[in-house]
Amino acid sequence: MPCKNCKTRPVIKLNSTNIKLCRSCFLKYFEKKVLGTIRKYDMIGNSKKINILDDEFFNINFNILNQLSEQRRGKFKVFKTKLRKGKTATSDNIDTISSLILLSEFKNRLRKDLLPVYKNTIRPLYFMHLEEIELYAKLKKLRIKKRKLPTRQKKVMNFINDMEKQYSGTKNNIVKSYIELINNLIDETEEERYKKH
Ligand SMILES: [Zn+2]
User: Fold this and answer.
1) What's the CA-to-centroid distance between 32 and ligand 1, angstroms?
2) pLDDT tens digits, one per residue of 38-83
3) Of 16, 55, 84, 190, which cross-links 91 as Cys (Cβ 3.0–4.6 Å)?
4) Residue 195 vs residue 10, higher pLDDT
5) Cα(8) to centroid of ligand 1, in Å?
6) Percent of the chain, pLDDT > 70?
7) Distance from the CA of 180 to the center of ligand 1, in angstroms?
8) What is the 3-state secondary structure (H, E, C) of 143-169?
9) 25 Cα–ligand 1 center, Å
10) Distance 3 CA to ligand 1 centre (A)
């Protein structure tokens, strides 16, 4: 089956759909989705400075955010720094996030810090699958720094990968219901606070 958009030879079959894309359509899809996440969650806001955490997919975040900075005529600048003042973009993605969400649920301790934006942490790759990120890096010749995950998390990730094969859309469902749940909890606490006054 050829690329869904232009009928040339595909490089990937997208997760959770049966859509196949060629090299150039895939690169467009990837960047559009990441930029869409940045916009939807207002990750830049009024910040003049965005730090990129020097982790696994530093080069990808750096490239895409620099593209955006150019589009916005340099309204913000991108830096390579460790966690300091200002917003920091991390390499978290749907695979790492969904496994951390499940791990926290197993421990019966729901973490509130795994949202696309939490305090000064922003996660542009939040909805991207590891497989997509690795392919993007390969096609763009961007270097990835391999990171060793804790054994427990790795096990949960494998479990979710098996689920995803059986029920495509599993990862998406995990992160989307998590976001909804946390937002509901936040609304409730705000209501409580409001009642007290
Ligand atoms: Zn195409």
Assistant:
1) 14
2) 999 999 999 999 999 999 999 999 999 999 999 999 899 999 876 5
3) 55
4) 10
5) 6
6) 96
7) 34
8) CCCCCCCCHHHHHHHHHHHHHHHHCCC
9) 4
10) 5
Domain ranges of the chain: 10-196
The answer to whether the pTM exceeds 0.90 is: yes
Judge contact between 4 and 18, C-beta under 8 A: no
Compute the average pLDDT of residues 158-165: 95
Q: What is the CATH number of domain 10-196?
A: 3.40.50.620
CA distance linking residue 82 with residue 21, whole number of Å: 36
Q: What is the pLDDT of residue 188?
A: 79
- What's the CA-to-centroid distance between 181 and ligand 1, angstroms? 37
Q: 179 C-alpha to center of ligand 1: Å?
A: 32
